[in-house]
């Protein structure tokens, strides 16, 4: 089985799968330390290889000479992704295994990654720190190395997800403190806390989150806004979204919030509701210095299902102004809104034509698509301004919109 060991060490998931399909034992022992190859994948934070081994029958609960298991080692390593991958094993955990796992995660969470690293190594020197981004979901964590041992600071996310998995309703305040220990919306711990509380979709969690908006600390308010946004999205898996149209409740906070990051999240949450007071808040921030705030203004404006009848002249003027904004993200947001607006005002089509000459290709694509969606014949000539596409990027379905426009014209002329 040397080939399997070598493939695992290389991190070659495709080769690992091929060898396993050819009959290689997923519980093969590494000749160096006598541990199953699943432990090699765990130590390397190699989720694809670990998943291949698990799918082939590797045992995450196999008791090792030191009393641990591959699953416990994933927890010790602070790997949220690996822990969840190993927990998807076909054999459910017994109650003692579950209690052991939760206790291990809780101990590691309370200790903290650096303290645990120093305890396990016995070393006192400087810790090497590296930011690691999960390209699949965009979350990040900090990876700490001291001597020959490496851990990641995801233990609080591991604990939070396991508690939710096993029906433990962790107190709201405790989850808040876990998130704030990693004060970044994209950190895996913060993100998992928001995800976990967002799936509760109950009035109690809604009120606690809303009350948190009154906190003097910006990080508390940012977390509150993030939680409320998550609650509005609801539990997608169950199709439960009872707060979808309650964004108008945030108007008093949005009117007085001074922190641009908090304000942007609040505006995002408000855009899923539709009310005159929400539009008024959006228009008030038309010239806000932060582009992330300005980019959300179009989504706060009222529209009917036909994209036309509720749009006020001042609202359309605001979006046309944003279409000339210095920030590309703001221009793209305005472009999307204009492309779906059904009004016949000539300045809308003219603004989209101007955006087909934008320096950013995504905006040019959006503008051409918007013209085609509006049945504006200028989309045909403007399509040539999109320019060569990056072959490494996935195909953008909007690139077919001019073709669809031409088919509609041909069908209309032939009828």
Structure in words:
By secondary structure, this protein is mainly alpha-helical. Among the domains are: 199-302; 321-415, no CATH class. The protein has helices at residues 2-10, 13-21, 37-43, 47-55, 70-76, 80-87, 95-111, 113-121, 155-165, 172-180, 188-198, 203-212, 218-233, 251-256, 260-270, 276-284, 291-294, 313-322, 328-339, 346-355, 361-373, 378-382, 401-414; strands at residues 128-133, 140-146, 149-152. The protein has a 3-stranded antiparallel β-sheet with strand order 1-2-3. α1 runs parallel beside α3 (37-43), α2 (13-21) runs parallel beside α4 (47-55) and α4 (47-55) packs parallel to α6. The longest helix has 17 residues, at 95-111. The radius of gyration is 26 Å and the shape is globular. The chain starts with a helix and ends with a helix.
Architecture blueprint of SSEs:
Layout: H1 2-10, H2 13-21, H3 37-43, H4 47-55, H5 70-76, H6 80-87, H7 95-111, H8 113-121, E1 128-133, E2 140-146, E3 149-152, H9 155-165, H10 172-180, H11 188-198, H12 203-212, H13 218-233, H14 251-256, H15 260-270, H16 276-284, H17 291-294, H18 313-322, H19 328-339, H20 346-355, H21 361-373, H22 378-382, H23 401-414
Antiparallel strand pairs: 1-2, 2-3
């Amino acid at each position: 089985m040397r080939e399997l060991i070598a493939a695992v060490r290389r991190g070659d998931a495709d080769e690992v799968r091929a060898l396993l399909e050819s009959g290689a034992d997923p519980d093969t022992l590494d000749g160096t330390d006598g541990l199953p190859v699943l432990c090699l994948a765990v130590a390397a934070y190699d989720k694809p290889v670990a998943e291949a081994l698990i799918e082939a029958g590797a045992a995450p609960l196999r008791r090792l000479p030191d009393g641990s298991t591959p699953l416990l080692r994933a927890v010790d390593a602070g790997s949220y992704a690996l822990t969840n991958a190993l927990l998807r094993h076909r054999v459910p955990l017994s109650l003692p295994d579950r209690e052991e796992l939760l206790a291990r995660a809780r101990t590691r969470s309370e200790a903290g990654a650096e303290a645990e690293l120093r305890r396990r190594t016995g070393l006192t020197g400087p810790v090497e720190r590296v930011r690691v981004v999960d390209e699949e979901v965009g979350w990040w964590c900090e990876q700490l190395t001291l001597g020959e041992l490496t851990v990641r600071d995801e233990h609080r996310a591991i604990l939070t997800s396991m508690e939710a998995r096993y029906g433990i309703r962790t107190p709201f305040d405790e989850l808040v403190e876990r998130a704030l220990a990693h004060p970044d919306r994209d950190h895996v711990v913060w993100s998992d806390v928001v995800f976990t509380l967002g799936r509760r979709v109950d009035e109690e969690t809604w009120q606690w989150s809303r009350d948190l908006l009154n906190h003097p600390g910006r990080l508390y308010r940012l977390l509150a806004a993030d939680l409320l946004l998550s609650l509005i999205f609801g539990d997608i898996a169950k199709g439960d979204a009872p707060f979808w149209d309650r964004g108008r409740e945030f108007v008093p906070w949005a009117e007085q919030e001074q922190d641009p990051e908090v304000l942007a999240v609040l505006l995002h949450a408000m855009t899923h509701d539709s009310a005159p007071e929400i539009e008024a808040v959006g228009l008030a921030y038309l010239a806000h210095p932060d582009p992330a705030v300005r980019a959300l203004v179009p989504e706060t404006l009222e529209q009917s299902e036909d994209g036309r009848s509720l749009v006020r002249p001042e609202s359309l003027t605001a979006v046309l102004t944003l279409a000339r904004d210095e920030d590309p993200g703001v221009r793209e947001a305005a472009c999307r809104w204009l492309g779906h607006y059904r009004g016949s005002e000539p300045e809308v089509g003219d603004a989209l034509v101007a955006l087909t000459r934008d320096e950013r290709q995504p905006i040019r694509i959006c503008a051409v698509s918007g013209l085609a969606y509006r049945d504006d014949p200028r989309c045909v000539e403007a399509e040539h301004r999109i320019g060569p596409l990056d072959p490494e990027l996935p195909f953008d379905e909007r690139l077919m919109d001019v073709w669809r426009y031409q088919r509609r014209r041909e069908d209309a002329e032939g009828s």
